[in-house]
Amino acid sequence: MTTKEILLTITDELTDCFADLKEEQLTELDSYIQKANKIYVAGAGRSLMMIRGFAMRLMHMGYKAFVVGETTTPALEKGDLLIIASGSGNTETLTVIADKCKRLGGNLALITTMPDSNIGRKADCIIHIPAATTKNNANTKRSIQPGANTFEQSVLLLGDAVIIRMMSGKTMDANNEKLMKLHANLE
After folding, report:
1. Do residues 102 and 59 make contact, with C-beta atoms less than 8 angstroms apart?
2. Residue 136 reports pLDDT greater than 80
3. Has this prediction a pTM greater than 0.85?
4. Strands (E), 65-114
5. What is the pLDDT of residue 120?
6. Which residues, other chains included, contact 42 with Cβ-Cβ below 8 Å and sequence gap of 6+?
7. Alpha carbons 113 and 166: distance in angstroms, whole number
8. Which fold has domain 22-179?
9. Are strands 81-85 and 65-67 parallel, antiparallel or unpaired?
10. What does DSSP assign to residue 142?
11. How far is residue 112's CA from residue 109's CA, in Å, rounded to a whole number?
């Protein structure tokens, strides 16, 4: 396969994955975001890198958004929302963080390929991403990509789509102006 053919295959995999998303889950996540006092995101490895982009865009939209583990992240309180990106939904460190969120009275959203997981059973809101994997079993589609690439790419694009939907009703110029007011300016 050429590099271009690989790229086209990857976009086909993502299209198939997004076609199977449940709109009611996305609407529920939007509702939790809208009513949250503060929004926290967490993940591990590449999933963390993808969900960080979502936190940045939430901040650009004027939300109080933080990445769990950063030195400037404040305490989670009742009425706050924690969004975890975990393909397996069973990552041990993220399970501990999810447990603490619930003990503190926070709401928990999970973006995952495995809704019936340790974190999934605790979550108030689940976004099930039916991402293709390199494993071939009855519950997943096959992927040409290594590891959890399709899931991780989906997390990034899902975050962008949520933000774009939240911007609806305004012109792109007005949205970009709003984003740029809070964009980093010390770079």
Report:
1. no
2. no
3. yes
4. 65-67, 81-85, 107-112
5. 97
6. 48, 51, 67, 68, 69, 82, 83, 84, 85, 94, 97
7. 24
8. Rossmann fold (3.40.50)
9. unpaired
10. B
11. 10
Q: Active-site residue numbers?
A: 152
Structure tokens, 127: 């976004």
User: What confidence score (pLDDT) does residue 139 get?
Assistant: 52
Q: Comparing C-alpha atoms, which of 155, 151, 159 is closest to residue 132?
A: 151
pLDDT per residue as tens digits for the range 154-166: 999 999 999 988 8
Each residue's pLDDT tens digit, 73-132: 999 999 999 999 999 999 999 999 999 999 999 999 999 999 999 999 999 999 999 986
125-128, strands of its sheet edge to edge = 65-67, 39-43, 81-85, 107-112, 125-128
DSSP 138: T
**58-60-62-66 Cα dihedral, nearest 10 degrees:** 50
Could you give the angle at the alpha carbon of 82 between the alpha carbons of 111 and 34, nearest 5°? 90
pLDDT at 88: 93
Domain spans of the chain, in order of start: 22-179
- Cα dihedral 92, 31, 151, 118, rounded to 10, equals 30
